[in-house]
């Protein structure tokens, strides 16, 4: 679980709650859909249709919020990441999951810090060691990436002190790296989102068709006077 200071962004909190709600609704939707189709229960199929429609509308609303509030979200995310960097401590087991996630981002995107490696100079542990260590996940040397987390020792620091410019780390900040990754994979992301929306629409159409068939069968079974 994340500490309150780590999830201080109202927008991210709301987003997390929305994802939890959508996940629970998806499980309920699948159960209702299977039960309604097997037993030919119109009420359950109707609930299945309603759940699908709510999920689709939620996804559209989330996409609109992200698009129109992207600058606000970027600022809030920046505050969270900068706070994480300043308080990064490999020995802190309570924050290990969050810190490992950030190490993974820096390793995979080949970036350092949110806007650049200079932000790591504000880390309390590195300041106490005169910046003679640096984050291993930022390193551009393969031998440091074997560990993938924590701090690595700088070789032969001048006068026992150093700055981020002396570190063998990536120059690109993760904000620019993430934005570039999104641009490079925009087609795939839009394709997946479109595919999911089409599947949901097909599910809605099929549930309506089943409801109509059940209604027709019930009508034909009614004895004529």
TrEMBL record:
Membrane-crossing segments per the record: 16-38, 45-68, 188-211
Principal localisation: membrane
Keyword Nucleotide-binding: no
Membrane topology: Multi-pass membrane protein
Top-rank lineage group of the source organism: Eukaryota
Subcellular locations according to the entry: Membrane
Cellular component GO terms, alphabetical: plasma membrane
PROSITE patterns associated with the record: TM4_1
Record has Nucleotide-binding as a keyword: no
Keyword annotations: Membrane, Transmembrane, Transmembrane helix
Pfam families in UniProt: Tetraspanin
Family (UniProt): Belongs to the tetraspanin (TM4SF) family.
Protein name: Tetraspanin
Biological source species: Promerops cafer (Cape sugarbird)
Gene: Cd82
